[in-house]
Design a protein that fits this description.
Blueprint: H1 4-11, E1 23-27, E2 30-33, E3 38-41, H2 44-47, H3 56-68, H4 79-91, E4 96-102, H5 105-120, E5 124-128, H6 137-142, H7 146-149, E6 159-162, H8 167-173, E7 178-184, E8 186-187, E9 193-194, H9 197-210, E10 213-217, E11 241-244, E12 255-260, H10 278-293, H11 296-312, E13 319-325, E14 328-333, H12 338-346, E15 349-350, E16 352-353, E17 358-361, H13 369-383
Parallel strand pairs: 3-15, 5-6, 5-7, 7-10, 10-11
Antiparallel strand pairs: 1-2, 2-3, 4-12, 8-9, 11-12, 13-14, 14-17, 16-17
Helix pairs in contact: 3-10, 4-10, 11-13
Bound molecules: pyridoxal-5'-phosphate (PLP).
The site of pyridoxal-5'-phosphate has 15 residues, from helix 5.
Length: 387
């Protein structure tokens, strides 16, 4: 049999630390490796598979659209894209009236930075410590952890980092060059830290007072992950710019930057060849319909409470804190998470890290209670050091 691991090791440009398995198939919350082993997938493509892997509605939409039109640049109108744009705006916070479509999370942040500089004619941004916004130059410059930036300097100028959930420190950083504030509602890569309502309310008011654009990065928290369609909905927060990606198109690459009427479009000065392609748009329409019809927001809330509720019954000596919003779950350990992740994988559960000491679980929101209880059983064994 072909050794796919060997082929990737030989031919792939090495940027990813790899897990030792070759994933070849997925359905809903399960994935299978090349040796036929089954896993409950709480990585879910790093929070992409909110509606599960290979969702039937998405498959049907893709098959149909693939026969009709796969690519159509943004310089032409397109029926499928038009329907998606209308749908996106209808589910977004009501301040947001239009969307720019692209292909990934980092691209949404790049676009947001350009739109904010273009609109305000100012160049600086205030971001949060532990925040993560992507790996391209602009998004990386908005990202706090110096490990992501230090080998690639000079980064884009004008980004300041302040402690998350601390309004006073953020307010102190505003100056006459500040274009906007860029924040996640729940910091994902930074360790699953949940933002407070009073903090976001004050930041929103400050942006109003000082004429700054509030850019909210919901690339990871969007599309029911936290128990609401967008985590902003918990606070009735009305961003000026909302960045979404990951789960938007049922597994296909897509990002969207939703903008309020305050944001001026730089006509002819931004764009993307693949952005808003009909294939991804068809998948996104199917994925969003599925989320809405199956109340995945409620499911994420209930399942998240079930998951964390069951864990809270134990006193684990190696756990510092458990944090979550919906099915975005972080377990902060008193030691490194890597050996725990390896043991979970041996037991048939895939989970991911968030920083060095946090175990993160981002299962499909369609995971069954039985599958969740399997994950909890294995996690408990691993945390108690049982083989
Ligand atoms: C909050 C947030 N913003 C941006 C990104 C970057 O997204 P992408 O990997 O699709 O470029 C991520 C990825 O994890 C993220 O969690």
């Amino acid at each position: 049999m072909t050794d796919f691991k060997q082929l990737e090791q030989t031919y792939e440009f090495d940027v990813y630390p790899k897990r030792e398995i070759v994933l070849v198939r997925g359905k809903n919350a399960k994935v299978w490796d090349s040796e036929g082993r089954e896993y409950i997938d709480c990585v879910a493509g790093h929070g992409v598979a909110n509606i599960g892997h290979c969702n039937d509605r998405v498959i049907e939409a893709l098959e149909q659209q693939a026969r009709q039109l796969i690519n159509c640049p943004g310089t032409f109108y397109n029926d499928t894209r038009a329907r998606l744009l209308e749908k996106l705006v209808s589910i977004a916070p009501k301040s947001l009236k239009r969307a720019f479509l692209c292909n990934s999370g980092t691209e949404t942040v790049e676009a947001a930075i350009k739109f904010a500089r273009f609109t305000t004619k100012r160049k600086e941004f205030i971001c949060a410590m532990r925040g993560f916004h992507g790996r391209t130059m602009g998004a990386m410059s908005a990202t706090f952890n110096p490990e992501y930036r230090k080998d690639f300097e000079p980064v884009v100028e004008g980004f300041h980092y302040v402690p998350f959930n601390n309004f006073e420190k953020l307010a102190e950083k505003v100056n006459d060059q500040t274009a906007g504030v860029i924040l996640e509602i729940v910091q994902g890569e930074g360790g699953v830290h949940v933002g407070r309502k009073d903090y976001f309310t004050k930041v929103r008011d400050l942006c109003e007072e000082r004429d700054l654009l509030l850019i909210v990065d919901e690339v990871q928290t969007g599309f029911c992950r936290t128990g609401k369609m967008f985590a902003s909905n918990y606070f009735d927060l009305e961003p000026d710019i909302l960045c979404v990606a990951k789960a938007i198109a049922g597994g296909l690459p897509m990002g969207a930057v939703l903008c309020s009427e305050k944001v001026e479009p730089p006509m002819g000065k931004h764009g993307s060849t693949f952005g808003g392609n009909p294939l991804a748009c068809a998948a996104a329409i199917a994925a969003i319909d599925y989320m809405v019809e199956n109340r995945l927001d409620e499911q994420a809330r209930e399942k998240g409470d079930h998951f964390v509720g069951k864990l809270s019954g134990h006193a684990f000596a190696n756990v510092r804190e458990i944090r979550h919003l919906g099915l975005m779950i972080g377990i902060e350990l008193k030691e490194k998470s890597t050996p725990y992740l390896a043991k979970l994988m041996e037991k048939g559960v895939l989970a991911l890290p968030a920083g060095a000491t946090v175990l993160r679980f981002l299962p499909p929101l369609t995971i069954s209670y039985e599958e969740m209880d399997f994950v909890l059983e294995k996690l408990t064994e691993v945390l108690l050091g049982k083989n």
